[in-house]
Design brief:
Layout: H1 2-9, H2 11-36, H3 39-73, H4 77-111, H5 121-131, H6 133-144, H7 148-171, H8 178-197, H9 210-244, H10 247-263, H11 265-284, H12 287-314, H13 316-324, H14 331-342, H15 345-357, H16 361-386, H17 389-415, H18 419-437
Length: about 450
């Protein structure tokens, strides 16, 4: 009993629980929209979110890892406030640049009648970019401080509000664009809450310095590229399917993709607590301990997710029905194909995190670009040769497999990380956790 209580009190469990609830709410809102909207409208919403998430990834990529890493190296409160203030200025600058780019692209699309049916997306892109900044920045700031519960609250507020607004609007039978209004209201309320709580970093803006701004930018530019690349790996599938097949095919493909996001949830939860801790170990200069901690945590997470991958393979029909009902049963085979590569995702993701920690963000960027090239070329070949979304799903195994192999190759070069040792230490850690829970 004591072992279980200690586990529940840990930051890793708090992160996992927060992300778990968030994932359930995300699935609920996803299922609600999938069941209410026609396939073509649902596919359009997926494409909108996929495109908007590229910007969110860009902003998070520039700020999050740089903020966490600099926080781990800071020695006093004034230095921390300088980091926060400079990070807020940087994220605001990125937002302004994004708004200008959106305006130019919209003008070009409008003047030359490009993708007329999607032109209304641009106004929503701009609005969401502004209203989401306070609550997004708050989550990054709280992550850097390892205030996991508060960070989870920020994320859950926007999700709960979105579900409530969608349910009300759907009840009154309002059209497809009402989903955008529901999303806007949820983002606005979450941001207002963060500003009132003082988590948005506004008071720290007076501590902004050019040197700190430059430091954050030069580290973050590689992390930004890495996260955008990772985002494009996922969303390039949707873009290629939407461009070469149909919006309905995008909808069918997106259902199992959302399931995989749930399986990745423990990875994000562990990363939230592990990244700041490993950054401190690296700051102390103990490479031997850093290598040991990486192998132990990555191996443990691999074994932890393995049963989930097997479960998706076996229970794919039931999982798809639970999310979308009978409308998307063509998604079953896609989920089964996805389950093949999900087991190696922890090893791919953690190798990338470690490259950032040892101050090699440019190598992590190269790793992700290799994966993106493999994915795009594979998708085009798969659709040209077979004309099915199943071929796109198969390519994902090669994409993440290449990322894992290249990541471990780089870590072996810099830290002498061993794949076999990762599995051995992961198994030992798994046994330790089991014994702690069972009080053995």
């Amino acid at each position: 009993m004591e072992g279980i209580l200690n586990l529940i009190k840990s930051k890793s469990f708090a992160s996992l629980a927060g992300n778990g609830v968030g994932a359930l709410l995300g699935i609920f809102s996803f299922a609600l929209i999938a069941r209410y909207l026609p396939e073509s409208d649902f596919g359009a919403w997926i494409l909108f979110l996929a495109t908007y998430s590229i910007f969110e990834t860009l902003r998070a990529g520039m700020i999050l890892n740089a903020l966490i890493r600099n926080f781990a190296h800071s020695s006093n409160e004034k230095e921390k406030r300088s980091i926060v203030g400079s990070a807020l200025v940087l994220s605001s600058t990125i937002t302004v640049i994004y708004l200008a780019i959106i305006g130019v692209i919209f003008f070009i699309f409008y003047e030359f009648d490009i993708l007329i049916k999607y032109q209304y997306f641009f106004g929503w892109y701009a609005i969401f970019a502004v209203v989401s900044l306070p609550h997004n920045f708050s989550s990054w700031y709280l992550n850097a401080k390892l205030e996991i519960i508060s960070m989870s609250v920020v994320k859950l507020i926007s999700q709960v509000m979105f579900i409530m607004c969608c349910a009300i609007l759907f009840y009154f039978g309002l059209p497809f664009k009402s989903v955008f209004w529901a999303y806007l209201l949820a983002q606005t309320l979450a941001s207002m809450f963060c500003i009132v709580k003082g988590w948005a970093g506004i008071s720290s803006i007076y501590y902004y310095t050019k040197n700190r701004f430059s430091q954050l930018f030069h580290f973050g530019k590689y992390s930004m590229g890495t996260l955008i690349g990772a985002n494009l790996i996922r969303n390039s599938d949707n873009y290629i399917i939407g461009g070469m097949l149909t919006n309905s095919a995008v909808a069918i493909y997106s259902i199992p993709s959302r399931v995989i996001e749930i399986i990745e949830l423990p990875i994000r939860s562990f990363a939230v607590t592990t990244l700041p801790l490993l950054a401190k170990v690296y700051a102390q200069g103990d490479k031997k301990l850093l290598k040991h901690e990486f192998e132990r945590k990555a191996g443990f997470l691999f074994l932890l997710l393995l049963p989930l991958s097997i479960g998706c393979l076996v229970f794919a029909p039931q999982i798809i029905w639970l999310i979308s009902g009978d409308k998307y049963q063509d998604s079953v085979i896609i989920l089964r194909l996805f389950s093949i590569y999900t087991a190696i995702i922890p090893l791919d993701k953690f190798s990338g995190i470690m490259l950032d920690i040892i101050n090699k963000p440019e190598m992590n960027f190269i790793k992700v670009m290799v994966m993106l090239i493999v994915n795009i070329i594979g998708d085009y070949i798969g659709i040209f040769e077979f004309g099915t979304i199943e071929a796109v799903a198969i390519v994902s195994t090669f994409t993440f497999g290449s990322g894992m192999i290249f990541g471990f190759f780089l870590l072996h070069k810099y830290l002498e990380v061993s794949f076999i040792n990762t599995l051995k230490l992961g198994l030992m850690e798994f046994k330790v956790k089991y014994n702690q829970i069972t009080n053995k």
